[in-house]
Design a protein that fits this description.
This protein has about 80 residues and is α+β, with helices and mostly antiparallel strands. It has two domains: about 1-30; about 30-75, no CATH class. It has one helix at about 1-30; strands at about 35, 40, 55-60, 65-70. The protein has a two-stranded antiparallel sheet. It has a two-stranded antiparallel sheet with strand order 3-4. A hairpin with a 6-residue loop joins strand 3 and strand 4. The radius of gyration is 22 Å and the shape is rod-shaped. Bound molecules: zinc ion (ZN) (2 copies). One zinc ion binds next to loops. It comes from Anaerosolibacter carboniphilus. This is RNA polymerase subunit RPABC4/transcription elongation factor Spt4. Keywords: Elongation factor, Protein biosynthesis. InterPro entries: DZR.
Length: about 80
């Protein structure tokens, strides 16, 4: 009976461990950044935060590409953002 209990225990530990490692990979793949306003996890290509609806990206005046709102200048054409 002790052996059966140990096997079940090991199985439970294995299941918890594999579930956690799967979850970890998923989170690091999908959500690398956090919203600067509310801290909600966001994807790199999100334009608006799904939680607090704040704008995360803005169109560059020089090349019209969407750039991170925290950046002081555009990495594509080096135009400085007017409101910073
Ligand atoms: Zn937010
Ligand atoms: Zn630009």
């Amino acid at each position: 009976m002790i052996l059966v209990g140990m096997i079940i225990f090991a199985l439970i530990i294995y299941l918890i461990y594999s579930e956690n490692s799967n979850k970890c990979t998923c989170e690091t793949e999908n959500a690398r950044a956090k919203c600067y306003n509310c801290g909600h996890l966001i994807k790199d290509d999100f334009v608006y935060c799904p939680k607090c609806k704040v704008a995360l990206k803005e169109k560059c005046e020089g090349c019209n590409k969407l750039i991170n709102i925290a950046w002081r200048s555009c990495p594509y054409c080096n135009t400085k953002r007017a409101d910073l």
